[in-house]
Structure formats: structure tokens, C-alpha cells
Amino acid sequence: QLLPVAKTDEFQRRLLEIYNACREEGIAQPLTLGVHRSDYMLHDAGDGTALAPKQVEINTVAASFAGLSQRVTAMHQMLLGRVPLQGLKAADCPENAPISGIAAAIAKAISLYTQTQPQVEKNGGEEEEEGRRVACLFVVQPNEQNVFDQRHLEFELWGTHKVAVVRATLADIHAASQLNETSRVLTFQGFEIGVIYFRAGYAPPDFTCDNDWAARLRMERSAAVKCPSAAYQCVGAKKIQQVLARPGMVEKYLSAEAATRVRSSFSGLYGLGDGSKEADDAKRRAIANPSEFVLKPQREGGGNNHYDMEMVEILEKS
Prior knowledge:
By secondary structure, this protein is an alpha/beta fold. Helices cover 42% and strands 13% of the residues. Strands 3, 4, 5, 6, 7 and 8 form a six-stranded mixed β-sheet that branches. A two-stranded antiparallel sheet has the order 1-2.
């Protein structure tokens, strides 16, 4: 389903090339860690019925704001405790602790890595019996602006699980990481990397040169557990989400009752440019009623969408 997208989208093409190269060579690490964020907006049908949550998208890479949203929940609980609003109390605010859950998942992945991956040999050929230093690598952007959100997770990993975190950009990883071609163990700054947690690498601006892509390939070839792997990152593409929204798709994997509940949260995703009747109908409806549609490219990180007459102009040219 992504091959047509890859023909016109270099970013998706290079991700697929990394996946295919690793598949042909042999996947070094079959485990993948998924940290998702499912985004919803409240939908007003305009017919007097209650507002209903509708899924906008699901993120499989660099899903951010777990740390900050947990603090926002604590703030809401505090405010409702001091100043009840329209009958709401602090107890009415649901618990929200994503940081502890994500940290526990990363710690579990580290544990599985150390159980299944042989220890790295010293230069003299002797295995290091004690003090194996296995860390989680946070892949971040230069001058990272989400650092405070990320620090909550870093501190939880060490405070609760004694998992060390090292932070690096793609350029840092290309310059200073080493991949053992025999064991596929990745090392960086004196640590053996057990988990690679991508908070960068989700959009074209993160890749400024071929060295950045070489760093992404080196990590993918490694035995570290990726969060996410290249394949898992591709699964989060808008195109895949649109395909899964087609009639009959979720019904392949869920019971009829569960599929109905899940589908009730779908906001409506339509492909463009594939020559299908569905695509032609969606394009015609969007031009006629632009306020009811958003044009979304295969991108993450926000700021890429097109609305209203800007969307109409793009569609009329396509």
C-alpha cells in the first residue's frame, strides 16, 4: 500500500529502503516496542446529539507530551479540588500516568534485550562478567524543544528502573556510534544500546544529509529494540490509516461488535490520486464543502495540513 506513496515521497521511499535492506540481510532484532498516541477531537454532528470523540490519527513514532500531559492532569485535579466547577470534583478527573507505563515498557524491553543478547566481548576476547552497561538511546533533534517532556521519562527510567538514558542526534550517532557486524551490538558513549527510542527522525527536516540516513540504517541493523522499527514507523503513515478505515478492513481482525465500536470513532479517511471512485468522490466533496475536510500529507509533527480554500486550490490543481 505504501509503494505508490514512495514513488512521489522521498521520505517514505528511504524508510522503505531501510526496511527492505534489513529484511534482505536478516532482521537482527525481531522485537519492536510500540509507544502510541491516539489523537481525538470532539465531533458535533449538528443534530442535537451529544458530542462524540472521533479519531484524527494514531502516532507510532515520537509520540510526545506524555510527561507534560501527566502534569496537566495533576493540575486539573488540584484546581478541581480547590475550586469545584459545575459540580465536578477532583475525583471526577480520570487518572493519567503515561510516564510510568512508558518507562515500564522500555525497562521491559531492556530486560528482554539483555536476556537474549550475548554480552559484548572486551578487546582481549574475554566476556565482561560484571558491570554490563546497557542503556536506552533517546534519538533527539538538535536544540531539542521537547526536552522537558522527555526528561520526565528519563528521570522515571532511572528513578524506578535504574535504566540509564543517553541522548544523541542523528549526526552524533553517525559520528560516534559503533556497530559490531558479527553480534549487531550497537555501542555509544561507552554504553551498549538495548533500546532506541526515537523522538526524532519522523519528518524530512530531521534528515539533513546522507549521513543522517546512514545513522538511521545503522540503528535499524542493530540488535537493539527499536521504538519504533522502520516497519512499525511505516505502519503509522496516513496512507495505512486510510486503508484500515476502508469498509471491511477492521472487521478482518475484530468481532462484529468490537469492529462497530471501533468504527464509530473513525472520523473518515480517504485516499487521493489512486483513481478509485472513493478518491474521486472524496475530492469532489472536499471541493464543494471545504470546511468539512482537512488535506493531510504523509507527515508527522504538526503544521503540515491544508484547510479551506488553500486545500481547494491544491485539489483543483491535482
